[in-house]
Amino acid sequence: MTKIAHHIPDEMLAAYAAGRLPATFEMVVAAHVSVCDSCRAALEAHETLGGTLIEEAPAAELDGDLLERTLALLDDSPAPAPAPKRFGIYPGPVAEALKHAPPRWRAAGGGVRQQILHEDGKSSVRLLYIPGGMAVPDHGHNGTELTMVLQGAFHDETGHFGPGDVEVADESLEHTPIADVGADCICLAATDARLRFRSLLPRLAQPFLRI
Amino acid sequence: MLNPDAMPATLPQPRPAVPRRRAGKQNGWKQVSADQELTEQTGWMLAVRDQRDRAAFARLFAYYAPRVKGVLMRSGMGSAAAEDVAQDVMLAVWHKAAQFDPGRAQVSGWIYRIARNRQVDIARKNGRPVPEEVETETPPEADPGAILALAQESGKLRQALAKLKPEQREVIARAYLGDLTHGEIRDETGLPLGTIKSRIRLGLERLRHELKDLRSE
């Protein structure tokens, strides 16, 4: 695997660990962590902190025979679903959403194709297919957009993004992503127009992760 | 950024997860060297993982189930629902035990992840997207050095937490156990996360190398 240069911001990893990241962005975080050891380590460190806090949390009272009932279920209860597995270029959590079948691409204009994985009002998670060498028209963003490269690469005003890399865009970014010549570029893109992710800026005015 | 090394290394250890010395090759963690320090919780977890030891499971349950329930209620769940989820979490601990790697996770951190995944999964129509597992042996091979390093790093993290003012600790607890953004954390407390994060980072670096080693094997 080529070296990943653009990572999930640490605040998003912490929010994912704590279960307070908006649903829209969870798949990108889970997909990136699947291929990025350093973000996995960062996530597990946040979980270590969460665990430490659990140990020191006050204990709630349990129903008197809960332990007995639980012991009785050990052999009979169904095993939880196993962690998702990769499918081709698609990391486990994306493969899961695709039900382990190739995407069914639809034209999205200008030679770009897409498959929407989830859409809910102003938020969406989709796969984008950009033919090699093609530019995605100059665009800005409402809210926050995370784009993870799964195949190929693109570059824009802010840098070069290859497989595994994540670009974090907010409304301050106007850019023209251009797919590298060569392999067609396939990306996972998550947008939430309601959210402003400004953690990369010095001023963090909005409680952006709570909706 | 605060200097993590400026903290005294010998603060009194707060109560939970007290390391103890295990004698010899008792059941449960035969691959771990005799003088390996394990927390009680890790010992129980390895007995569950390697021996399917129900008594050890009962101890884990007695320790974690009430805390997990408390944490779930703290984030707004009703008592009965929280108890159901706590039970689910402990059953998942039993079923997923083979994946527990004491060189990568403290039992509490591992349970924290299972609990959060379960809680969010219930709240989502399409379930929660979770990462792939790292490909490794099951159960993962014991690595005494990594286990010790993680225990020490977690101890330092606990000390760093203990040094915070109560209101700062409360804010951190809300971020990880309740719901609060890191932005709010900064607003409310100045920069307590600086110290915590530097501790996390030290842990991370170790975890990261650990993971790299796993990958290259």
Structural features, described:
Chain A has 211 residues and is of the alpha+beta class. Chain A has five helices and nine strands. In chain A, strand 1 and strand 2 (113-120) form a beta hairpin. In chain A, helix 2 crosses helix 3 (37-56). Chain A is elongated and about 65 Å long. The relative contact order of chain A is 0.18. Mean pLDDT of chain A is 86; it is low at 197-211. Chain B is mainly α and 217 residues long. Chain B has two domains: 33-140, Rna Polymerase Sigma Factor, Chain: A (Orthogonal Bundle); 143-217, Orthogonal Bundle (Arc Repressor Mutant, subunit A). Chain B has eight helices and two strands; from the N terminus they run ββαααααααα. Chain B has helices at residues 40-51, 54-74, 79-95, 107-123, 144-163, 166-177, 182-189, 192-216, and strands at 19-21, 37-39. Chain B has a two-stranded antiparallel ribbon with strand order 1-2. The two termini of chain B are 36 Å apart. Classes of the chains: A alpha+beta (211), B mainly alpha (217). At the A-B interface, helix 1, helix 2, helix 3, helix 4 and helix 5 of A face helix 2, helix 3, helix 4, helix 5 and helix 6 of B.
Question: What's this model, at a glance?
Answer:
The complex is a heterodimer of chains A (211) and B (217). With 211 residues, chain A is α+β, with helices and mostly antiparallel strands.
**CATH class group of chain A:** Mainly Beta
Under CATH, the homologous superfamily of the largest domain in chain B reads RNA polymerase sigma factor, region 2, helix turn helix motif
CATH-derived architecture of the largest domain in chain B: Orthogonal Bundle
Supply the number of structural domains of chain B: 2
As a whole number of angstroms, the C-alpha radius of gyration of chain B is: 18 Å
How many domains is the backbone of chain A divided into?
A: 1
Arrangement of strands in the largest sheet of chain A: 1-2-3-9-4-7
Strand content of chain B: under 5%
Count of helices of chain A? 5
